[in-house]
């Protein structure tokens, strides 16, 4: 099929922004008398506690005035409450978090649907004695006239708070250990006879630098008093992150869980977490020699576009030699045995070559590699050695320095790879499953993506848990042979495991692309022995995937790339003979073929086979690099002079998701839309679709910077050849942007950018009606929550329109999390297509309509 180049939209015309719709159900709140019965005792407790702490305050501590972090829980939300808090002496705003699925009770419920769960918000506030007294004083003034309290200007939000207040309490030991994973690591180390635990102690971030220093000094004293030591500390104000890495004796950690240690009572501590487990396993079995396939070894040329932050690769491997730029500022290579350079070697191989079994052309550009993992074999894990973040090193600090070194340089040196547009992170923190708040590492990626206009590719994470299939007393062998039943049973079992298969940090990042795997590779082998391929289908999500949703129920993962066919061993369990499927991790039989280390010294052509979301993420980065070269090619076409470096990464983000579809996952249609979104996001990526157009498919690109309350309008002419023709057609629109973030605000995302498609210049006509199409795939409201809006419209009925009709795609911007003062970069991709067998000259018709503005450059009418 002949291909044609992507078309660049004419520059957008300015317009007023669209209004956002929506409304909230009316919530019943208790009356003043009932609120007094509930809230007054809580305020009394706070006053007594702060008084007691003042008496108990140690003169050795750097902070003389005792403080307390207040958790103020409401049903519903109070807009701009941050400003009201900052007006009260003794109170300092820390953060706010959304709460979902709160059970209704006799005090709070939705009036029209009393049985429905509620949403609320947590406000986190640092308070001293004066702050608690002021809070009590405000309540007294409110109680004198609840309907119209006499509050000064700027204090009226407190009236709303007191009406909606569900609870007010101090942040305590249980909060500091809530689902952090520290207990599990402690138990493992105790069992192995370890004498210490390395923990990350995250400190509440406060604006005043002197207070931050005093808080850290207080923590150092308490850690020292427990016989521990501080290994590292870091503070990044832009993401409100302040943390210490501390080594604590086992006995001291045990006292944390019994709430005996003074350390667990320290008000400055937000969380105690285990040392970040950015780990990847090293397979136990041997790689396979691959003398039969010749790999090209010519040196790559040009500047790197992809940066790989991972383990150190085997740079002289036959697949990798002369194709990597290794940057090892910590000189880890000397203590990184060649035999243990497994994961970085595999990821570099996938980025450069794809699945080796597919025999694809290698990327022409080199890949920049910065090691952030090292080999480690802790006895307490009772497993083989791993490649992981060095113990005691804070992941946020290391990745911050690594990315800053790319674009700003380090220690007065020049930037090492400013040409990078894609950063590959095929790793995840197993100890931090996403739960309501953004992890520090996800916040870091969001800020760095905004600051440097770079696209992070992040793996959703692997959950290689056992899958149990209920046989209902049936014959196990018969059920295993029923492939359709087995597929559906596995998908259902995985979909039900919402809590245990959550996203791993930092894959909840909103500016990044989060990649999960679909069950596909090029290796045609039959399962061995007792092993089975439980899906036996290439378009289903891998059973090992982490699943969404993300922060504020954003669509996550964003898309799926091939991640290999994971095999399982089968066992019968239980009285009914249920089937227990256990994942197999043999690297010499199934999965995607990748370059590998070897047990034979000097062997540089070994390969192995691997599966998982790491692989899928590396393939996503490879596709992004190929699309980058296509965009560079477009710079020579009319309109291409506007395509500057500032928009490249955002267009890569838009185009990768633009290629995604639910069309190939027909076996998920029995699940509800929310469940499908959790499993596959926007769908399986087909990047070839956005590399070029055909006679029956045209893709147009637009981009720009937009301010809050602005609108940009793009016109897609409707092709005359489609007028009145009954045939299948599809309109796909994808909008991507990078947002600045406000880490103190519950909305987090400062910029909300969205599109609405219309027919006609007055923005009144219905685009879907004009083309006789309807929405399919992701719920359109869910698509508005993140930094990607991807909508697909399909239909097959004839549509009739005038010769000059067009679709107007109107892009708008508003602020979402506090004041938005900066312009926001965005990228827009629009594809209109019809069935190839129609032979309609759709591409030619649309180009002819926009030819007075955009001409196709000579020599670009056929691009291979």
Note the main attributes of this structure:
seven-stranded parallel sheet, alpha+beta, disordered C terminus, 864 residues, six-stranded mixed sheet
Description:
Helix 10 packs parallel to helix 11. The protein has a 7-stranded parallel sheet. It is built from 18 helices and 39 strands. A hairpin with a 5-residue loop joins strand 34 and strand 35. It is globular. By secondary structure, it is an alpha+beta fold. The C terminus is likely disordered.
- What structural class results from the helix and strand content? alpha+beta
Low-confidence stretches: 854-864
The first-to-last residue Cα distance is 10 Å
Largest sheet: 7 strands, parallel
- Mind telling me the C-alpha Rg? 28 Å
Shape: globular
Number of strands: 39
Provide mean pLDDT, rounded: 89
Q: Helical proportion?
A: 10-25%
Could you tell me the strand content as a percent range? 25-35%
| Helix run count | 18
Strand order within the widest beta sheet: 15-16-14-19-21-24-26
Per-chain topology:
Elements: E1 7-8, E2 13-16, E3 27-28, H1 32-56, E4 68-75, H2 81-86, E5 91-102, E6 109-110, E7 118-127, H3 129-144, H4 157-164, E8 165-170, H5 173-176, H6 182-191, E9 196-203, H7 209-225, E10 229-236, E11 241-249, H8 250-257, E12 269-274, E13 279-281, E14 306-310, E15 324-326, H9 343-353, E16 367-371, E17 374-376, E18 386-388, H10 395-407, E19 422-425, E20 429-433, H11 440-452, E21 455-459, E22 467-469, H12 476-481, H13 483-496, E23 504-505, E24 513-518, E25 531-532, E26 559-562, E27 568-573, E28 578-583, E29 592-595, E30 607-610, H14 613-634, H15 645-658, H16 673-680, E31 697-706, E32 710-717, E33 729-737, E34 751-759, E35 765-766, H17 767-771, E36 774-776, E37 788-795, E38 806-815, E39 824-834, H18 842-850
Parallel strand pairs: 1-31, 14-16, 14-19, 15-16, 19-21, 21-24, 24-26
Antiparallel strand pairs: 2-32, 3-6, 4-7, 4-8, 5-7, 9-11, 9-12, 10-11, 13-18, 17-18, 20-23, 22-28, 25-27, 27-28, 29-30, 31-39, 32-38, 33-37, 33-39, 34-35, 34-38, 36-37
Helix pairs in contact: 1-3, 6-8, 9-14, 10-11, 14-15
């Amino acid at each position: 099929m002949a291909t044609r180049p992507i078309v660049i939209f004419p520059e957008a015309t300015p317009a007023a922004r669209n209004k956002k719709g929506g409304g909230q159900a009316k919530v019943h709140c208790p009356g003043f008398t009932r609120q007094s019965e509930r809230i007054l005792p809580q305020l009394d407790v706070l006053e007594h506690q702060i008084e007691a702490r003042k008496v108990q305050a140690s003169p050795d501590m750097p902070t003389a005035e005792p403080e307390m972090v207040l958790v103020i829980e409401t049903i519903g939300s109070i807009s701009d409450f941050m400003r009201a808090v900052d007006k009260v002496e003794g109170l300092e705003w820390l953060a706010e978090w959304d709460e979902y699925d709160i059970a209704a009770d006799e005090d709070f419920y939705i009036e029209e649907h009393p049985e429905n769960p509620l949403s609320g918000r947590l406000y986190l506030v640092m308070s001293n004695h004066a702050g608690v007294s002021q809070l009590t004083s405000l309540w007294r003034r409110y109680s004198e006239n609840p309907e119209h309290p006499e509050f000064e200007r700027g204090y009226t939000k407190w009236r709303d708070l007191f009406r909606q207040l569900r609870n007010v309490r101090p942040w305590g030991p249980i909060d500091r250990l809530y689902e952090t994973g520290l207990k599990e690591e402690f138990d493992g180390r105790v069992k192995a006879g370890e004498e210490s635990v390395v923990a990350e102690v995250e400190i509440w971030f406060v604006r005043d630098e002197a207070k931050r220093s005093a808080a850290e000094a207080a923590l150092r004293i308490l850690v020292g008093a427990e016989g521990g030591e501080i290994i590292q500390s870091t503070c990044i104000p832009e993401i409100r992150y302040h943390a210490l890495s501390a080594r604590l004796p086992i006995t001291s950690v045990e006292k944390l869980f019994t709430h005996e240690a003074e350390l667990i009572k320290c008000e400055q501590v937000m969380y105690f977490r285990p040392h970040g487990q950015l780990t990847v396993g090293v397979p136990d079995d041997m790689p396979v020699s691959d003398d039969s396939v010749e790999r090209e070894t010519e040196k790559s040329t040009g500047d790197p576009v992809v940066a790989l932050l991972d383990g150190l690769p085997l740079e002289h491997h036959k697949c990798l030699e002369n194709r990597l730029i290794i940057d090892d500022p910590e000189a880890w290579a000397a203590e990184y045995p060649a035999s243990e350079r497994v994961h970085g070697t595999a990821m570099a191989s996938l980025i450069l070559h794809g699945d080796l079994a597919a025999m694809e052309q290698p990327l022409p550009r080199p890949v920049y590699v910065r090691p952030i993992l090292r080999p480690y074999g802790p006895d307490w894990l009772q497993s083989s050695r791993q490649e992981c973040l060095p113990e005691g090193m804070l992941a946020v600090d290391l990745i911050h320095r690594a990315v800053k070194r790319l674009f700003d340089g380090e220690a007065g040196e020049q930037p090492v790879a400013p040409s990078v547009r894609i950063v590959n992170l095929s790793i995840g923190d197993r100890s931090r499953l996403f739960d309501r708040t953004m992890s520090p590492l996800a916040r870091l990626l969001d800020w760095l993506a905004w600051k440097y206009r770079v696209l992070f590719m992040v793996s959703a994470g692997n959950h290689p848990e056992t899958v149990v299939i209920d046989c209902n007393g049936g014959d196990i062998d018969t059920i295993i042979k029923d492939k359709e039943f087995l597929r559906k049973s596995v998908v259902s079992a995985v979909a039900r495991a919402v809590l245990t298969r959550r996203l791993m940090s930092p894959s909840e990042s909103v500016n990044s692309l989060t990649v999960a795997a679909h069950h596909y590779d090029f290796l045609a082998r039959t399962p061995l022995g007792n092993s089975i391929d439980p899906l036996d289908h290439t378009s289903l999500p891998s059973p090992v995937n982490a699943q969404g949703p993300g922060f504020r129920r954003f669509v996550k993962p964003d898309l799926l790339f091939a991640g290999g066919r994971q095999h399982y061993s089968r066992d019968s369990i239980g009285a009914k003979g249920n089937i227990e499927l256990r994942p197999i991790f043999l690297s010499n039989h199934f999965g995607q073929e990748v370059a590998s280390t070897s047990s034979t010294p000097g062997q540089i052509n070994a390969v192995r086979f691997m599966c998982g979301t790491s692989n899928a993420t590396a393939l996503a980065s490879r596709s992004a690099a190929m699309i980058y070269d296509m965009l560079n090619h477009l710079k020579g076409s009319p309109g291409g002079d506007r395509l500057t470096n500032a928009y490249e990464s955002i267009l890569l983000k838009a185009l990768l998701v633009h290629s995604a579809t639910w069309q190939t996952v027909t076996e998920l249609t029995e699940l509800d839309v929310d469940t499908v979104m959790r499993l596959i996001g926007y769908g399986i990526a087909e990047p070839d679709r956005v590399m070029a157009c055909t006679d029956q498919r045209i893709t147009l690109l637009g981009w720009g910077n937009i301010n809050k309350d602005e609108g940009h309008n793009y016109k897609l002419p409707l092709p005359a050849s489609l007028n009145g023709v009954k045939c299948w057609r599809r309109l796909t629109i994808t909008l991507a942007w990078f947002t600045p973030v406000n880490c103190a605000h519950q909305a987090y995302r400062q910029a909300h950018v969205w599109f609405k498609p219309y027919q006609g210049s007055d923005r009144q006509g219905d685009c879907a009606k004009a083309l006789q199409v309807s929405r399919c795939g992701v719920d359109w409201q869910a698509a508005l929550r993140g930094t990607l809006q991807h909508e697909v419209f399909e239909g097959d009925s004839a549509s009739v329109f005038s010769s000059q009709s067009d679709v107007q795609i109107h892009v708008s911007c508003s602020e979402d999390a506090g004041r938005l003062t900066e312009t926001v970069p965005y990228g827009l991709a629009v594809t209109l297509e019809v069935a190839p067998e129609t032979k309609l000259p759709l591409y030619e018709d649309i180009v002819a309509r926009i030819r007075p503005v955009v001409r196709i450059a000579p020599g670009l009418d056929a691009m291979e």
